[in-house]
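2024-03-11 09:14:02 DEBUG pipeline.ingest accepted 1 chain
2024-03-11 09:14:02 DEBUG pipeline.ingest length=356
2024-03-11 09:14:03 DEBUG pipeline.predict start
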Amino acid sequence: MTTPETVTDGLLSPQPRRTGERPLEDPFDVMFTGWSFFRSKLLTAAMDLGVFAALGDDSLGAAELADRAGLHPRGARDFLDALAAIGLLVREDGRYRNSPGTLRHLLPDREGFVGGFLRMTTELMGSDPESFTGLLRGGTARNQGAGGEVPFTKIFHDPVRLRQFLSAMDSFSGAVGQELARVFDWSRVATFSDVGGARGNLAAHLAAAHPGLTGTVLDRPSMAEHFDRLVAERGVAERLRYVGADFFQVELPRADVVILGSVLHDWPAEQRATLLRKAYDAVHDGGWLIVYDTMLDDERRDPDGLMLSLIMMLQSAQASGFSPTECGAWMTDAGFAVERVVRLPALTTAVIGRKN
């Protein structure tokens, strides 16, 4: 396998991946590692108390913000400054405003809202230590049934949770889609298929950015109505179509480019290999496969990626993370020549291979 080009410029990744923490020595370093859950308490408390909603697009002084959010003076200043210190608020000249990420992702009326999905996944992980130790000792997800069923799959039958899930997925795929529209030369192709593309958010971004493209989204049949609504709102309905099916049971839609985005991590090795072989059959000669996912770094030193892989295992009976090198090897086994490894937003990496 030839060594693929790796793109890691700052335009593709808003913040560089951490490559590992220094060894702990100070006792308070150890203590704060144990207390790191308190960061999540800052976030959830701010959501529960309506701090972000109280600010909206405004800038407020500490006393006024505390009054709007119903905060007692004793803890208000430290609480607000702690939110600013971890990047959820911005403090300037004694006034507070929502950070750009908070504006985009933590206000319920915004398109990129992930707060509901955050609450749901936190609940599914559980607060009891046995949830995690059960995974580490027995290899099972939290509350996994005898047949491998897990609570996460129930979201597809709960309209409220499904909306929260889709909103969060749109936030992630929107960031990825805008960058993917830029870093791949779409002028070379006319068609694409997004396998496991949910309600078509990434496909809509690609179609909007490149008017010459037509595409197909394949996902579960229940997503069809959500797809129809989204592509109509985005004005790309004439160039995108939907196939509702199980991608293991049907041939994948043929295209110049096939995309497997945030799909492979859900499946064990055998099913991953099956999907990649099916993708090879679906790609036109000379076309490309793009696999993107929240991949581990090859050196396995990035704590965020490793923790995300464990979170996947805690919520799913079969999911796990993988590295770009592992992904490239699987793609090579399926017949692709790996050309590039590209860093994208939202902790995402894309591996691009060509069918020669």
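2024-03-11 09:14:41 DEBUG pipeline.report The chain has two domains: 5-13+172-354, 36-105.
2024-03-11 09:14:41 DEBUG pipeline.predict end
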